Amino acid sequence: MATGIRDKVAILGMGCSRFGERWDMGAEELMVEAFLECLEDAGIEKDKIEAAWLGSAMIFVNVGLSALPLPMALRLPNIPVTRVENFCATGTEAFRGACYAVASGAVDIALALGVEKLKDTGYGGLPNMGSNAGPSRFLQMPNITAPGSFAQLASAYRAKYKINRDDLKKALAHVSWKSHKNGALNPKAHLRKEISIEQIMASPIIADPLGLFDCCGVSDGSACAIVTTPQIAKDLGKKDIISVKALQLALSNGYEAQYNEWQGDHFVTTDICSGRAYKEAGIREPREEVSMMEVHDCFSITELVTMEDLHISPRGGAIKDVMDGFYDREGGLPCQVDGGLKCFGHPIGASGIRMLYEMYLQLLGRAGKRQLKDPKFGLTHNLGGFPFMNVCSIAIIGKYGA
Amino acid sequence: MLQIRVIMNSTIEEVLDFKCCNLREQNLEIHVTNTGPETLQVKSGCDLESEAESLRLDYLYPPGLQTLPPGETIAFYCTLDEQVLARFQRIVFYDSRGRRHASDLRPAP
After folding, report:
1. Do A251 and A292 reside in the same domain of the chain?
2. What is the rounded distance in angstroms from the CA atom of residue A32 to the CA atom of residue A76?
3. Does the model's ipTM exceed the 0.95 cut?
4. pTM above 0.80, yes or no
5. Cβ of A255 under 8 Å from any chain B Cβ?
């Protein structure tokens, strides 16, 4: 019987590039920037790495096909490297591959690295994938925009819980305000200035009710992790060991898009995926036991609704929790402590591992001005696609043995 | 009636530059609030005035007429040198019926 990933894999080291409009660097240099930090943190020579996973999504504007860019850029000597892509869950998918390789005993030490360089495209958002998205997806998502689709989620959420527009707008503004406040403390964030609630509320509407600050932008960045077994980590002299508690993935199967039951107000995949993740991690009361989160705040409404799908806020109760400051850095369960996608932007392949990087720093007490008091479990969440058809990934990491 | 608030060298400049195509160096942010009882349509443009001169800013973003219900605020953005703004005492917006809505740039202490 399967026993799950809990405490079978330890994070030996992590690294993260500065995110931003990195005109001075290509994807290869971004990989090197993150990797050098990671390698130093792990305290090993790079020839100890036995396998690697590369996460990169927008291959047609980015590193291209195959996994070759990773071993070429990092000069890793003839090891197996696999490139993965799974929409916005791409980075976490690379991490999952490396963790499973270690947990299976296939290798002792593996690398997961995510990278994306999107600002060179000249787009404020993601480039249009067109038929590159695949024939079935292209048929099911003709002419759709991401803001438009997530604005529909906001409308459906409002309708279901009978929330007036102003109350929802204020809660969405608080979500963004909090992230920018946190991002101002992070030297690796793309945007590092606080924004007032008034500025957020007055900003232009992109797709009603979502305004400029409710939508994240894209960016250039890379993040990576070196993983091994807890025993090897101890043998290498690591004292504070951070281990993987859960790695779960849930993908839509057509239920949301093709049946009538779903009302468009929440993410079916996140609801299911989080239940499995808590079970794998041995968490019974997530609101009390999870110490901090980085969730996929591609749009403010995504973050707000996700709080309910993660079983942290009760159904219809996320607005109250947001306005009470429960998800603020000083609140009961801090969310987007590093600034989130709002301040980092969203280089697709890197985002999932960038989120894990913040949880890792926090657990080791290395988060500087953002440091939380004695966190135990950190949860990361990615959602790729649209409310009606998506890929959801959840990872939970924590102190070994916790 | 419009209430006008000007934010020079706004933090939003970086955000617009980051998220919006070809919308760079928008360092001046102007909040316009409808404090009256009726919905107004506000022109995307304004005049800066002093005793000696006036300057029309007709390149605000977002462009076109903006509908503003009572109590709501809309933000406009543009590029303007801080020293240029310092030459003026008033900022004036116009609604679709041609009415002036002026506000002091340097309110009395």
Report:
1. yes
2. 11
3. no
4. yes
5. no
